[in-house]
Amino acid sequence: MNGRKRLLTVLNGERADRIPVTAFIQGQGHFITQVKPETDPWDFIAIQKDVIDYQKSLGLDVHARMLFFNPHKPVFAFCGHLNVDVQTENWEVTHKEEKNGNTILHKYEIKTPEGSLKQTFSINELRPKTYMYACTEKPINGPDDLKIAMKYEPSCSDEIKGEMKKNVGIVKAEIGDSGILSAWTNGGLFNNISGFIDANVLYSIFLLDPGYYGDLMAFAKKRVVDFTDAIIQAGVDALCVGGNVAGGFLGANCFDEYIRPHEVEYISHIQDQGKPVIYHNCGAIMGLIEPYKKMGIKNIEPFSPEPLGDGDLEMLATRMKGEFTVTGGIDQVNIIQGGTVADVERVTLDTISRGKKFDRYILQNADFLEYGTPLENVEAYARTGLAHAEY
Fold it and tell me: Most buried residue, 30, 72, 130, 211, by most Cβ within 10 Å?
C-alpha cells in the first residue's frame, strides 16, 4: 500500500498492510520554522508544502492538515467567533487594529438592523513567525445577541469557497499518493459555541437555561454544517473535528446527555458524505470512552499520555471492540521535544507495541510538534515507528 491508501484504509475502519506512521505538524511557525526558517508563515501554500516535503523526507505516511485556507480568511472557521470576513446590507463590520506587546488585537463591531455585536480576535506572536490565536472578547452575551447572530450572520462567500477548492487542489497534488489531506472544521458543536460565549457560562448553560442552550447548538449546527459542506466540496480526504472543550471538564453522564446527541448528528452529516471524521480531544479522554463508543466516529485522537492528558492505550484496549480507529499519541513536549534520542526510541517502540492490540491504529505524536524540538528526535521517532510498523 502507498501512504494514501494505508491511511484511508485505517481511517475508514479496516486493517492496513501495516500500522500507518505519521506526524502531526501544524503550520504558522512552530516546528516547521526550524526546517524552513526562510518560509513566510503567512504563505499558506509554501508552509503546507514544507510540512509535506519534510514528512516525505522521513518516509512517513503523510498527513497534512489545513488550518486556514488562505493567509487570513476565514479565521472564524477554526476559532469559532462570528464571521467578519463577509459583509452584507444587514451585517456591517467595522475593524480597528491595536498592538499590545507581542499581541495584535483585531477589534470588530458588527452593526445589524436589530443591534450591534462586538468581538476581539487576538493574534499573539510567541516568537518570530510563531503565532497563537483566540477570540478574547466574545460576541454573544445572552439570548438577544444570539437572535441577532442567528438572523443576520452571513455564510462563507463564494470567493472564499473558490479559494478553498483551489488550495485543496494544490496541496493534494503536492501530497500525491504519499498520504492524505484533512482540514479542520469549525466544530464539534460544543467546541463551536465555546468560541462565541463566555467560558463561565459555557459549562453550566445546558443545566441553567436549556432553551438558550438549545438555540446555541442550533446556531452552531447551521454555521458549522455550512462551512463543513464547503470543505467537503473543496475535496479534502478527511475532516478534523475539535472535541477537546468538553473533555476533562464534563463527565461521561453529562457529555452523554447534553453533548453527544448534537455531536452524533453532525458527525453523521459528514460521514454520510463519505468523509471520515478525525475527532480531536487532546486532553483528558479516558472518562468519555463509553459515550465516544456510541458516536459512530471513524477515528478518535490523540490519546495524549500523562502528563499532557490521561490517554492509556493499555486500558483502552480492554474497553473497546473496534468501535473506532485509535490514534495513539507520543508525548510531543516531554519526550520528542525534551527527551533524548534514546527516550524517543524507547517510547515510540512501547507505544506502537501497545497500538498493535488494535486492528485500527495510527502512530502519531499526540499534538503538533513544538518549536525547539530537536530534528534528531523527530528522525528517531520516524525511524523507530517505521521499523516496527508491521503487525
Answer: 30
Q: Which of 51, 3, 21, 24 is nearest to 331 (CA)?
A: 24
- pLDDT(241) > 90: yes
- Domains for the chain: give ranges and CATH numbers: 3-80+140-387 (3.20.20.210)
Q: Select from 1, 160, 12, 28 the least CA-distant residue to 84.
A: 160
- Residue 333 has a CB neighbour count (10 Å cut-off) of 18
228-252 b/e with 16+ CB inside 10 Å = b?
Answer: bbbbbebebbbbbbbbbbbbbebee
What is the distance of C-alpha 38 from the center of its chain? 26
Q: Of 334, 335, 285, nearest to 311 (Cα)? A: 285
Q: Which helix (H) or strand (E) holds 386?
A: helix 375-387
Is the Cβ–Cβ distance between 235 and 208 less than 8 Å? no
pLDDT bucket at 160, cuts 50 / 70 / 90: confident
Q: Is the pLDDT of residue 22 over 60?
A: yes
Distance CA 318, CA 341 (A): 31
Residue 31 DSSP one-character state = T
Residue 29: band (very low, low, confident or very high) from pLDDT cuts 50, 70, 90? low
Beta-strand (E) ranges in 167-237?
Answer: 179-184
What the block records as the C-alpha cell of 304 is 495524549
Radius of gyration (C-alpha) of the chain in whole angstroms:
20
CA torsion angle for 185, 127, 23, 228 (degrees, to 10)?
10
3-state secondary structure of 302: strand
Amino acid at 31: F
Dihedral of alpha carbons 225, 84, 150, 255, sign: positive
Max CA distance (Å), the chain: 63
How many residues belong to the chain? 391
* DSSP state string for 56-70: HHTT--EEEEES-SS
Read off φ and ψ for residue 141, nearest 5 degrees: -120, 25
Q: How many helices (H) and strands (E) does the chain have?
A: 16, 11
**Residue among 141, 133, 156 at smallest CA distance from 196:** 141
Strand duo 277-281 + 325-330: pairing? unpaired
